[in-house]
Amino acid sequence: MKNLYHSDIYKFNTPVKSYWEETSNEKLNLEKLTKNINCEIVVVGGGYTGLLCAINLIENYNLDVILIEAGKIGWGASSRNGGFCSFPPIKTSFKKLQKIYGKEETKRFFRNAVEGSKYTKDIISNYNIDCDVTGESNFIVAHHPNKFKQIKEQAEVYKSEFGIETKIYSKEEFNKFGHGGNEQFGALSYKPGFAINPLKFVNGIAKYALSKKLKIFEHTLVDKINKNNGYYTLKSKEGSVKAKKVVVATNGFYQEGLVPQLNSRILPVISNIIVTRKLTDKEIDLHNFKTFSPIVNTKNLLYYYRKLPDNRILFGTRGDYIGSDQSNLDRAKIMEKFFKNIFPDWASISIDYNWRGLIAMSQKLTPSIGKIENEEIYYGFGYHGVGVSSAPWTGNQLSKLVFSSNSKNLNISKIYKGLPKKFIFPKLRIFYFRLAVLFYNIKDKLNI
Fold first, then answer.
1. Topology of the domain comprising 7-81+199-267+364-438
2. What single-letter DSSP state applies at residue 77?
3. Helix 48-61 crosses helix 387-404 at what angle (to 10 degrees)?
4. CATH numeric code, 132-197+269-361
5. Which of 85-99, 207-221, 401-415 reaches the highest mean pLDDT?
């Protein structure tokens, strides 16, 4: 199976050295698949989507489910993301959504997006997960005076069209309880929204899944899927799983070639994160960084950042195009400059952590949930960097679809349903992305 990036980013046997790994002590001690076994349903992918799908299949339908993960549980984006529970999971404007799908379907999509955020909060509560929840809303910060009008319009549409609670703050107002710096010219808040430690969250879900007798196998990379007499056999190096139905929940780390119908539909994009050392209260006050809520700015190639519970600052943005360990280090140095340009009074603050992961984009620019035609293979992917709110919810929706085997029974916005188009000349996907980044870089420089 051929991947788009350097092999360094696909080291399934090695946990990524991140701040989350340093602050999460959970040891699940799960086994590797070393024999041939059978079940009704096999889920490929041990992140939010796969785990929630499996849990709901067991709890709601009493089905026999096995989950397999190429790395350790949550090895992919589920343990590496910034921990932002924000929405919606799209990379296009609501105006474009309305143009393509109509006003009512767009409203339904946003209702589903809000449901996703609330569902994540409910999981934390119902499964009794301690994952360092902070903040009570999401903020979008105008990074340039030109952008303040844009977020005011967005706040009004969110409120009037979608019933979302919003509030606008001037630069001076946000400076009092949010933060200051060189790229803060007012902000918009919307609810629901909060931040988490994503690794503690995914480990908490896994512990709950194990309490429901879900059989989980880690470090089990599927090399091939064969079909015979209506059954699927998923083969790894040391064992296999035979099942009636297959759920593919691998998002940006999908292995091309595994399911032909899914090939060339996902554009995995690298996103990088840096985390500072702990700041003193006096240092925090230099930019008046008060809020613990997650923040994104209005750049086309957005920055996302937040204050962590121990007074570190997490800062993330688009990653490199290569995926090697060296390119990750190089990108971290560039990101440090971005960060210190925004917050110049922190110029001497050192960076303690840097890591990266893959988010899944598609031509649809929204998530995709469905069933492959004439097969018992199901999929959920394409969260466009907004997986904390949308991936668990997708897992729940997938469980209903897997049980019924009929996508018409799935009572969600049709914007989510079905596969995105394949990329033309899929080997050029990274080149297409480079062109898009170049275009958006120009827009950001011109502040348009």
1. FAD/NAD(P)-binding domain (3.50.50)
2. G
3. 40
4. 3.30.9.10
5. 207-221
